Amino acid sequence: MSQPPTRDPAPILTAPLSTESISQPRRLSDNQPQGFADRLRDTITYTRGRGALEIGIIFAIVLLGFVIAGIVAPDAFPFLSPSNLSGVISQSIPVLAILGIGAGILMIAGEFDLSLGANIGFSAIIFIRVSEAVGWGWGALAAIACGTGIALINGLIVVVTKIPSFIATLGMGFFWTGASLFVNGTSPAILSSAKDDTLVTLFAGDFGLFRSQLVWLLVIGVIAWLFLHRHKRGNHVYAVGGNAAAAKAISINPSAVRLMAFGIFGGLVGFAAILIAVRTSSMQPGSTDDYTLMAIAAAVVGGTSLLGGRGSIVGMIIGAALIRIIENGLILAKAPGFYIQLFVGLIIVIAAIFNKLMEGKAS
Amino acid sequence: MTIDATIDTATPLLRIEGVTKRYGANTVLNDVSFDIGHSEVVGLLGDNGAGKSTLVKILSGVVQMTSGSYTWEGQHHDTVNRALTEQLGVETIFQDSALVPQMSITRNLFMGREITNRLGLMKMKQMDAITSEILDTVVTIEGIKSSKQLVASLSGGQAQAVAIARAVHFKRSLLILDEPTSALAVRATEALLNYLRQLKSEGVSSVLVTHNLHHAYQVCDRHIVMNHGRKILDVRREDTSVEELTAAVVEGAVGVERFRAGRF
What we know:
Chain A is mostly helical. Chain A is built from 14 helices and 3 strands.
């Protein structure tokens, strides 16, 4: 057996790349952040690398502007009115943010799922059908299982056949939209008898200034953050998306990690489908296709790299919030419909350019 | 640094015998046998297409041999896959792909071997502290400010050093470096060769795969030259010269014969 190496206090392998500071070696272990201010500075420095900080500042500026406008002209710009905060913002942001988290985790692993919208449609129809038949508890389980299953099938196709996820999931998206029509017909599936007070309170409850969806976002956000940023499996997601060969060389199985990312994504899509179905009480096949690119946009705006390996949960949530708040502001300012698409489109392109610059700086 | 005298020098760390690899009718490796001793630096040389990369993949368990045997510290292993070589302590550092650029030094160092609590949540503070300690004591790398720095912000030489530090920290017993110097500046190359020299004193054997004979000659105890899938030369450093190695790499077995005929 090879002898375990003994640790000397002095450097064992000394080969400095520069000779300037040999006389006074600077020790990293003495450089650990000591006080609160140190740790905060550390955190900010290394959060920057994930692209969430800059978008957070932009979001704060936009939000501050809207709040001031809402205070100055509450009638012309009713941003702070309870009906706007609870009725619009706290219903629209959480759904997109949850989808953005799912799409973002998948993107960090280096994959896309363009069947997201079709998956929502199919899972929501399953939720409504099962709820109407045997109660919403089973319906909710079925929807999450359905969302996860659809995403895992995509994942298996990508991992086994090695075709790009872009094209595989584009095709499967059409398939599941077709499947929704096949299962449900062209008329919308309606959630009626299964919709009791508990269900509404749980998934769309109105608590004055906010709704249940916001609480779900907080719960999912914290769990997703713990997973992605603190759990070893989350670390593997970054590793595989950043450099699959390096991950493999250290005996992480890239296929297993990618499948896991698809599974998490699918579970979140299934859950978002429940939130959407309970809010609208109905689901028309093919009506949820917009969510696909909006979720990817939320992740990209929040600093998630299109090439994999980079992104953060906070960024994804801020990305979704920024898109929805600007939409909301334009509607409140009575901007014509096409303005909204125009602005959202611009934000996405600017965020992507910004990300590209960040990536250039990082490498 | 002394090498423990109780190591049985008669039993090599790794012995491969008659290793052959065929892809269809194409024989990439033909009956290759050699030993890698304890705390030995072995140079694996050869021109492009000599079979070096395939051999590296077989040694590290990524590719399976068609026939041949793999004996680790006297024990024969029938199937050599990545799980086995991981357990034996073989680590391969590929030229550009050893680390994940978008991740911090700490996360790279502990990638796949994270220190976690029972729930699998990483103990970041502990990992950061250990990383700083490693960067201070195992390898001295100038210009690194924090263990939280992204690997993308490191130079090629610094990144190689981090990869080597990782292998040393996790007490790997055989380090395979695939063309480690080809992307490095002169100074970083010197530093890397220095690390290799001193890895020995940590009890780590290493295989340096390169086509730069001068780099290999500076640091390797032994040189193995491959040509068209065959081993044509296996000599200790003191029994050869850069000239002979050059003849072997460029002209193959004929070159060695001609060189020896000229010398004797």
